[in-house]
Amino acid sequence: MARIAPISRRTVNSALLCALAAGCDKSLPQPHSSPPAAGVAPPTVTSAPLAPPILSFDEAVANATHAVLTAAPAPEATPAMVVIDPLVDGITGYQSSATQSIQDRIVSLMKKEFPQYTAQPITSQSLERQPRFLIGTFTPINAELNPAGQRESYWFCLVMGDLKTGKIVAKSVARARMQDVDATPAAAFGDSPIWTEDPSIQAYIATCKGSKVGDPIRPEYLDGLLAAALVSEAGNAYQEGHYAEALDLYRTARKSPAGEQLRVYNGIYLSLTKLGRSGPATAAFGDLVDYGLRRKRLAVKFLFRPGSIRLVRDSGFFSGSYDMWIHQIASRAVADQVCLRVTGHTSPSGTAALNDRLSLLRAEYIQSRLETDQAVLEKRIVAAGVGSRENLIGTGRDDASDMLDRRVELNPMEPCTAGSQA
Questions:
Q1: Cβ contacts of residue 375 below 8 Å, gap of 6+?
Q2: 3-class secondary-structure state, position 259
Q3: Using CA atoms, how far apart are residues 211 and 21, in angstroms rounded to an integer?
Q4: Long-range contacts of range 304-307, CB-CB < 8 Å, 24 or more positions apart?
Q5: How far apart are CA 12 and CA 15, in angstroms?
Q6: Residue range 132-143: mean pLDDT, rounded
């Protein structure tokens, strides 16, 4: 077969991505269907009949961006502002080196090939002009295009919306090679100790994955834009080591109408910790625990030694905080009079049988620590291990990028009465 010239290949791929934008993305689970809770198997989703080819990271980003910017209606005046709401992982909501790289490449491509647009970060000031915006998700998926099992590529969804018309005006999808992607979480996400489903992130993901061209922009996404702008600025300040500024921005976001967000609670705790304010940081972690218990899912990044139930204490951001975490979780569980199911998770490394056993042992270790801290929790906690069957990332890299796969989850069980057998 003759080799296709690069420009022709881009044209063909861009046309394919435009054609697929409304259909292929339906193969991914929609965000209103949350990732499976402990003990629940991931949903089975029927594969789409046609999927975009797997490309290099650079080519996937270039083609998807080119498809969106080409397909969007010409702006009324040029250059038209396009605000970029930072891209995220389509399951966890995390930002990473990969999503930041995509954003940088979009900005570069606009400058070189699309002078009718000027890219701007999301801020309260930029939103006042009712610009167009770009959002995107970048998610590891398997051969059936599902975020489950062995991941083989990254699914990239890119959407442009217009705040003046209130409509989605362009969309594209692409797939990128797994080995090309640096999925290391951005600082504020990698350092965050707690994860759970967050309605604000789910609204963002739903707007990208669940929308097609011509749809109205989802009101739940629009309602959170001001808070999103503040959180983005706070995350940038944290990344740059400006922790006092980050704290002020996170606290301001918390006071906004849509400020009840996990990333806001995490940001306040992290900023206080970096500033050495241990008392307020402890209280902020307690707020994080309360948020997770209200959401019925509290995933905690207890960092265990490889193949062990011993916690790493000699390095890393979390090393000195485990005792405080345990105490806050135990105390809040007692105060809320909840019973807990503690579920251990592992990455895919190793055999299934070993991972199942190791995940259970880790859950039992955390159970023991909680019961030691608060004796009233005895008979109100059960432990379980699910190995790697409920991975959120699933790449098996065993580094900072998939730390959430080695989490311990705490899920309230109802009904629960003090002293009852959970």
A1: none
A2: coil
A3: 10
A4: 304/362, 304/406, 306/398, 307/350, 307/358
A5: 5
A6: 96
As a whole number of angstroms, the distance between CA 399 and CA 190 comes to 11
Per DSSP, the residues of 382-396 read EEEE-TTTT-SS---
pLDDT one-digit tens code per residue, 288-313: 999 999 999 999 999 888 788 888 87
For residues 30 and 312, what is the distance between their CA atoms, to the nearest angstrom?
A: 36
Q: Which residues contact 111 (CB under 8 A, 6 or more apart)?
A: 119
Closest CA to 302 of 166, 403, 387: 403
For the entire predicted model, the pTM comes to 0.86
- Picking from 156, 125, 130, 133, the residue whose alpha carbon sits closest to that of residue 58 is 156
Q: For residue 96, give the 3-state DSSP assignment.
A: strand
Tokens 């389509």 belong to 90
Three-class DSSP category at 219: helix
Cα–Cα distance, 160 to 132 (Å, whole number) = 7
d(CA 217, CA 204): 10
Is residue 343 within 8 Å of 296, Cβ to Cβ?
no
Structure tokens at 87: 């891209």
Residues listed for the chain: 422
Which two tokens mark 243? 């922790």
Q: Report the alpha-carbon distance of residue 144 to residue 162 in Å, rounded.
A: 32
Of 232, 278, 3, 197, nearest in space to 95 by CA? 232
Distance CA 196, CA 298 (A): 6
Element (H, E) at 287: helix 278-294
Give the tens place of pLDDT for each residue, 77-134.
889 999 999 999 999 999 999 999 999 999 999 999 999 999 999 999 999 999 999 9
Residues 388 and 348 sit within 8 Å (Cβ to Cβ): yes
- Between CA 154 and CA 152, with CA 147 as vertex, the angle to 5 degrees is 45
